């Protein structure tokens, strides 16, 4: 009997015909859209106005204010309202009102002239490159490069083109001004020598120094823009040696488990992770399908993926499906599920005149449900695939900050509601309410029914938020926005795309054309910044559009597909299978030149991640073994064969994805409160018997009577001395009542020492501290011989010091738990 395959095979018909739609969720969403903010103002005790299936609640009418002239006048007497005075404090002065529109018109005319000149320069550069690059054998090799259907074919064509243009000679020369080649050579030699000698600690020290973002500038795009494939041989060998050294540290027995665990966590924090950012762009956003397919085929798809608008739809599909499902789905036939713009013009024109938006929110929610696997939340998607989905949205009001939704900031938020908010561009889709899934599966409005819209209006690529939440230091951006696509130029070439003339050297076109292009682009940016800072641009459709051109649209690596002219005309239309096939091919073709640069970075991240996973598995095995009773003593007759048949305590098949960076994120990924309860966990092996438990948990001042007696004796030492209990209690191994007859500063701090542990029930060190204190008490604390006057000063300082140290340790544990 053959075992079932570990990864089940899927067919396209099975995946494309899956139905994840829940009508009750759509009804709850439609009902939430009908409610206005007045309802939530009167129902602040709940986060949702209603639950699915409940009758619709009418919007409460506006409450009429009650007024009366006096205590005896009729309440319903109509009071004439006072005439409002004109506000003397206007927001703008007369000069602004007088010069605003003339100045705005003048600046826009200047921008139009600069933009026309910019387009002219770009066309001149394109014409010059076409003449110099597409002739003779070089042109034939370039056509072969562009006609490649797979990444292997593209690499072979790129290698042939590098050999023809003598770019291989540049790879063999270590010296270059764009990186510290001497330092890279020293580090590579040191790692190799230490690894071959078996010096694990020396190799560990070198790795701790060189694992940094762009160490010695080895990740500079300029080093990958001189050839069609690859970079300096020194850099290639450096990354190879770095990967081998990380594997050596992971496998070596010369380092302890704690040292390895600490190193891999530190390396992950220092290096950071790579994130894939998918921009918006309406129909142009479907080029992202080809980008995802290129990453997926080579096993380079990052774990952190973010998207806005159309990019958010592709990101949601990627983060809610496994790799096997994505390889089946990313085909041209997927176009039959893309039906967002299927309505005729007559329908959407009437809707626009009635609601101010072209598309209906509920209808789009129904269509988005397939891409998000139904009403799946951000946390559910993370636990299913291990990928972290991020969607950028902004509140409907003008000045609220941007929100990045993910499984940390909004774990129970339904993904399709976030996608609708991310696509809510004024005039296209009205702001929507984000929906939250409860434990019983019902949906309720999130954040008290606040409305949200497209985050790309302010932040299309949220690099700062990604670095804050997930330590992203290498954002890879796939940019398809039509309003910024023209301005990506790369005057000195880009990764995998050297300059077309002069054998890849110099500037595109020539220095004069590249300088003019850069100057005009900066001038356009300056003029838009002046309009924004002077608040000259009026709000259109309730939105301030001045920041649309002033964002950061690129990343460490930027991929920009080349659309056709017809793509701009069909900017709001659905692709058919042949069109989607072309978009898939174009998306892969523009991604392949960047893959080698991305691969050098991601394989180091994978080596660190593999080390963290191995260390986590070994730590769990060690903790599990420590919690088990000693088998040879309890079951000496059990054989090794019987022990081998026992189930393994380590889960491998259903293991949750490892966190990206912090322990707090690990707690969120586990979906439990173990991280915040870890301070109360009992140490394994510290208590092994009932008698030991009783002895360790014994606290002399745990009872109310003993604490009261101790306090009264402390305040009245004469009565304590007269009671005759001073010499009655000698130190003995048996449990005895503490001696309170002779009271001195020593006794005070000793009692305070034990009393301090009573007030920290949440500390993980409580049981261990009491046990240690009990051992000391048999010899020192509760012994009458320890109260010598000569030892008072020493014990006084010692007790006070221990209190300070324990306070600091426990405060540190509490702070670490919160962080």
From TrEMBL:
The active site is at residues 309, 454. Keywords: Hydrolase, Lipid degradation, Lipid metabolism, Membrane, Transmembrane, Transmembrane helix. Residues 635-646 have a biased composition (Basic and acidic residues). Its EC number is 3.1.1.-. A motif (GXSXG) lies at residues 307-311. Residues 276-467 form the PNPLA domain. It comes from the Eukaryota. It is a single-pass membrane protein. Residues 629-664, 721-743 are annotated as: Disordered. One of its GO terms (biological process) is triglyceride metabolic process. It is an enzyme of class 3 (hydrolase). The chain crosses the membrane at residues 94-121. It is found in: Membrane. Its main location: membrane. GO terms for cellular component: membrane. GO terms for molecular function: triacylglycerol lipase activity. Lipid hydrolase. Belongs to the PLPL family. This is Patatin-like phospholipase domain-containing protein. It comes from Macrolepiota fuliginosa MF-IS2.
């Amino acid at each position: 009997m053959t075992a079932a395959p570990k990864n089940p095979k899927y067919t396209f018909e099975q995946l494309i015909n899956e139905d994840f739609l829940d009508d009750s969720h759509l009804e709850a969403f439609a009902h939430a859209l009908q409610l206005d903010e007045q309802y939530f103002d009167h129902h602040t005790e709940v986060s949702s106005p209603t639950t699915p299936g409940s009758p619709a609640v009418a919007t409460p009418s506006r409450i009429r204010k009650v007024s009366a002239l006096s205590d005896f006048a009729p309440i319903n007497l109509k009071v004439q309202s006072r005439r409002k005075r004109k506000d003397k404090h206007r927001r703008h002065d007369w000069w602004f009102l007088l010069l605003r529109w003339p100045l705005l018109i003048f600046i826009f005319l200047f921008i139009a002239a600069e933009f026309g000149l910019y387009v002219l320069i770009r066309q001149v550069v394109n014409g010059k490159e076409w003449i110099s690059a597409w002739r003779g054998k070089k042109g034939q090799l370039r056509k072969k490069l562009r006609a490649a259907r797979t990444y292997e074919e593209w690499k072979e064509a790129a290698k042939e083109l590098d050999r023809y243009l003598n770019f291989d000679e540049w790879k063999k020369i270590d010296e270059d001004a764009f990186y510290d080649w001497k330092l890279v050579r020293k580090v590579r030699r040191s790692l190799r020598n230490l690894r071959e000698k078996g010096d694990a600690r020396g190799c560990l020290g070198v790795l701790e120094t060189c694992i940094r973002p762009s160490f010695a500038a080895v990740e500079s795009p300029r080093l990958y823009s001189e050839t069609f494939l690859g970079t300096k041989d020194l850099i290639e060998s450096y990354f190879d040696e770095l990967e081998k050294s990380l594997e050596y540290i992971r496998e070596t027995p010369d380092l302890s488990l704690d040292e390895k665990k600490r190193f891999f966590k530190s390396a992950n924090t220092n290096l950071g992770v790579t994130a894939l950012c998918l921009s918006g762009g309406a129909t142009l956003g479907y080029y992202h399908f080809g980008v995802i397919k290129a990453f997926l085929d080579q096993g380079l798809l990052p774990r952190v993926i973010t998207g806005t608008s159309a990019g958010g739809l592709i990101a949601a599909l990627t983060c809610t499906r496994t790799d096997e499902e994505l390889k089946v789905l990313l085909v041209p036939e997927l176009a039959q599920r893309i039906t967002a713009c299927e309505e005729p013009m007559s329908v959407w024109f009437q809707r626009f005149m009635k609601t101010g938006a072209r598309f209906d929110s509920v209808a789009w929610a129904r269509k988005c449900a397939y891409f998000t696997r139904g009403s799946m939340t951000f946390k559910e998607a993370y636990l299913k695939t291990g990928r972290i989905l991020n969607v950028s949205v902004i509140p409907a009001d003008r000045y609220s900050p941007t929100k990045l939704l993910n499984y940390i900031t909004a774990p129970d938020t339904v993904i399709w509601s976030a996608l609708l908010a991310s696509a809510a561009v004024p005039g296209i889709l009205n702001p929507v309410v984000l929906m939250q899934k409860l434990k019983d599966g019902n949906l309720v409005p999130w954040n008290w029914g606040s409305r949200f819209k497209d985050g790309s209006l302010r932040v299309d690529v949220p690099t700062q938020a990604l670095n804050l939440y997930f330590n992203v230091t290498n954002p890879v951006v796939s940019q398809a926005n039509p309003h910024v696509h023209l301005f990506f130029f790369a005057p000195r070439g880009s990764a995998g795309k050297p300059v077309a003339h002069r054998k890849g050297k110099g500037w595109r076109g020539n220095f004069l054309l590249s300088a003019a292009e850069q100057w005009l682009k900066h001038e356009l940016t300056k003029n838009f910044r002046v309009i924004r800072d002077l608040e000259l641009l009026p709000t259109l459709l309730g939105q301030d559009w001045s920041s649309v051109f002033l964002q950061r649209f690129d990343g460490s690596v930027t991929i920009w597909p080349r659309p056709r002219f017809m793509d701009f005309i069909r900017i709001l239309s659905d692709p058919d299978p042949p069109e989607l096939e072309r978009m898939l091919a174009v998306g892969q073709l523009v991604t392949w030149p960047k893959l080698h640069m991305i691969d050098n970075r991601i394989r180091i991240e994978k080596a660190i991640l593999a080390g963290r996973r191995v260390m986590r598995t070994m730590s769990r095995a060690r903790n599990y073994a420590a919690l088990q009773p000693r088998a040879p003593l309890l079951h000496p007759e059990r054989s090794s064969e019987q022990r081998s048949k026992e189930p393994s305590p380590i889960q491998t098949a259903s293991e949750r994805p490892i966190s990206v960076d912090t322990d707090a994120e690990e707690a969120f990924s586990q979906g439990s409160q173990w991280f915040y309860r870890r301070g109360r966990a009992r140490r394994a092996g510290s208590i092994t018997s009932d008698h030991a438990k009783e002895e360790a948990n014994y606290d002399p001042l745990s009872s109310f009577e003993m604490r009261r007696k101790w306090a009264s004796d402390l305040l009245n030492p004469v009565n304590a001395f007269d009671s005759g209990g001073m010499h009655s209690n000698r130190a003995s191994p048996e449990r005895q009542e503490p001696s309170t007859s002779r009271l001195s500063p020593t006794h005070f701090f000793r009692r305070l020492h034990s009393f301090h542990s009573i007030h920290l029930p949440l500390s993980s060190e409580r049981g261990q501290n009491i046990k240690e204190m009990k051992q000391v008490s048999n010899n020192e604390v509760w012994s009458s011989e320890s109260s010598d006057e000569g030892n008072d000063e020493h014990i006084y300082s010692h007790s006070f010091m221990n209190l300070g140290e324990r306070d600091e340790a426990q405060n540190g544990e509490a702070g670490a738990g919160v962080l």
